[in-house]
Amino acid sequence: MPKLWSILSPVSPGKTAFQLNLAYLMAKMSPEKQVLAVDFNFLKPDLAAFLDFSVESSGTKTLVDLYNLLLGYQTIVLEDFLTIPFNDLPNLRILPGDLEAMNPFENVSRDLWFKFFKQLRDTSEVILFEAGRNVHHSALQFLIAESDLLFICTEPDPLALLHTRSLIHSLISQGRLEDLRLVLLRYRPESAITLDYISKLLPIPVHTIIPNVSDREYQKQFLDAQLIAKNDKHPYTKSLMGFLDKMAEVPKVQEVKKPVWKTLLTTRKFIRKSQNT
């Protein structure tokens, strides 16, 4: 199975929930594998949702401390809990990747982030990246260059589909056609946007359909400290299981164009250079 997966979307159709539920299932189904979820859009307000289904990190440091740290309310040692563990899956970690959001606080070092990512990358069998339309251009180029597979998430909405088509054409022009997989999120059979319409509009076929889950249901899952994927009978979970069955048939990419660590260093230098100009 390919190691580096990127979940990209020019819109916001629930890709974070897709990433985390997928990572949860992968870690649950293969407890011997280390799974890392890196969210490049992990903005400060988003942490509140993730705190609800996460637990204490190493030592006495809690995720509430991490939340306060990123909000600038207190000064603590980030190295103690830069990654966020799930309560019942020690082989699953979340790594916040929004360097711009973390940078203003003096004890949050970009060097430390890259150091941790390198360590986790070297010990992880599968890495799931997630990035949306607001991700820094250099980070997006890193994902495009280094990922074995690129999953383009969209939803049955006219504007979303047009933005998605533009993104797909851009990736095809960069030679990534064979590595693209289209994931349709929030699908409703009664939607006015039919699958036939989507197939004619977009240049690649739909790889996986994930059924719609209401915003209220998402919120309930967060408040109840649960992931939807914990419910084996939920249609959302069944769709994710089907997705993983398809991915199990994809041969693992043996060679990567450039070492990931080298690209990360280049990305970091690019960001710093752009800030100084």
Write up what this structure looks like:
With 277 residues, the chain is α/β, with parallel strands linked by helices. Helices cover 43% and strands 16% of the residues. The chain has eleven helices and eight strands. It has helices spanning 15-29, 47-51, 63-71, 99-102, 110-123, 137-146, 158-173, 195-201, 215-223, 235-247, 260-276, and strands spanning 4-8, 35-39, 84-85, 92-96, 126-131, 149-154, 180-187, 206-211. It has an eight-stranded mixed sheet with strand order 3-4-2-5-1-6-7-8, with helices on both faces. Helix 1 (15-29) packs across helix 10 (235-247). Mean pLDDT is 68; it is low at 43-64, 69-82, 101-108, 221-226 and 252-275. Keywords: Plasmid. It comes from Desulfosporosinus acidiphilus (strain DSM 22704 / JCM 16185 / SJ4). This is ATPase involved in chromosome partitioning.
